[in-house]
Amino acid sequence: MKRRRGTNGRGESGHGEGEKRRRGESSEENHPANERVSDPTHPRVPASPPPRVGSSRVPVSPRPRVDSFLPSKRLGQNFLVDRRVVERILNALGPQGNETIIEIGPGKGALTDLLVERAGRVIAVEFDRNLGPLLDERLASKDNFKLVQDDALQTELCAEIRPATRARLVANLPYNISTAILQRLIAQRECLSEMVVMLQREVVDRMTAPAGSSERGYLSVLVEAYCEASRLFEVAPSAFKPVPKIWSSVVRLTFRQLADTDEELLWQVVSAGFAQKRKTILNNLRNAPEALQQRIKPRGGASIILCQADIQPARRAETLTIEEWRLLTRLLN
Ligand code: SAM
Fold first, then answer.
1. Are 122 and 115 within 8 A, CB to CB?
2. Looking at residue 55, what is its pLDDT?
């Protein structure tokens, strides 16, 4: 098993600040959990990287046993214990012997164990350094497994999968930062072709909300712009330990071929459109940030642009389809 080593990039081990920091929990306050970013190609990441573990300067924690491991709520550690759910997720993914699969948050290895049996290579990114020894116990002998002990919000996946240039991804995502991780994954789409991920059911509801649904928001448009989303199945709380209060959903996200739109401008327009969800698209575009105003005003103002796009000015952002957002963007380009 390969393990990436290193310090936190500032030449510090970053340790000695108690259990939270040692487990990689300290940067959670910096995690933009479920926070919107205006530019998905540059999602906001924690200001200070978490300690990169595995360095010789890092004190080695006692080797925890699977049964004595204390799950961290802050790291969203609800481990899958229902073998049927594990099988369903892996069957949905269908890993092939000649491909690279990335797993975010392998935890105690519920999915990982079978993944390494079925996939060509498995690159697993886990933030909690206490889980390293547990994964070692199970997977140290597997040549096709690489553990990256890092914050998935910062990991450069395209670099980690080399020499492969594309991979598919599977994850039972930590719910508290699932939106932020999704944004980060979408930003790295150049080396990702498909993802099968388990998320909080409400997040999947928002993610897949069609135009016109009150649940539609920035996340729905972001996912629709880049991915074909298909909801696969629901998972009851009893499939996890500790048992969460919420249901989960497994969703397949297949990356689309990109349309010919100025992506940065698209996200400025979508951001401005959703700035005040209860206001009309006209009002939100009239109050758009200065950079966008400089494109809107010379073209006759927001109502003219909306008229050219055949979008009723009284509509709200949640009713616009991805084609309408792209059309607005082209008119402002
Ligand atoms: N895959 C395992 C399973 O299904 O039983 C564990 C899933 S658990 C819901 C989420 C996992 O993500 C935990 O192992 C947690 O430590 C890890 N995690 C949390 N935040 C992370 C981050 N920022 N980067 C990488 N892994 C993270």
1. yes
2. 31
* Cβ 171 vs Cβ 195: under 8 Å: yes
Q: What is the distance between the alpha carbons of residues 301 and 307, in angstroms, rounded to a whole number?
A: 10
| Res. 7: pLDDT tops 60 | no
3-state secondary structure 15-29: CCCCHHHHCCCHHHH
Give the three-class secondary structure for 273.
helix
The two structure tokens encoding residue 123: 């690159």
Global pTM reads 0.76
In angstroms, the Cα distances linking 49 to 27, 80, 183 are 7, 28, 18
Q: What percent of the chain has pLDDT over 90?
A: 71
| Percentage above 70 pLDDT, the chain | 79
Q: Closest residue (by CA) to atom 1 of ligand 1?
A: 106
Q: How far is the CA of 13 from the centre of ligand 1 (A)?
A: 22
Pocket test for ligand 1, best of 104, 111, 156, 195 (most atoms within 8 A of CB): 104
Instruction: Please say whether the beta carbons of 214 and 262 come within 8 A.
Output: no
Candidate CATH numbers 3.40.50.720, 3.40.50.150, 1.25.10.10, 3.20.20.105; the one for domain 66-255: 3.40.50.150
For domain 263-332, give the CATH number.
Answer: 1.10.8.100
Name the average pLDDT for the chain.
Answer: 83
Query: d(Cα 296, Cα 19) in Å, to the nearest integer?
Result: 52
Using one digit for the tens of pLDDT, what is the confidence trace for 123-156? Answer: 999 999 999 888 988 898 899 999 999 999 999 9
User: 12-56, pLDDT tens digit by residue?
Assistant: 233 333 444 445 543 333 333 333 333 333 333 333 333 333 333
Domain ranges (residues) in the chain: 66-255, 263-332
CB 250 within 8 A of CB 88: yes
Q: 12 C-alpha to center of ligand 1: Å?
A: 24
Q: Which residues contact 91 (CB under 8 A, 6 or more apart)?
A: none
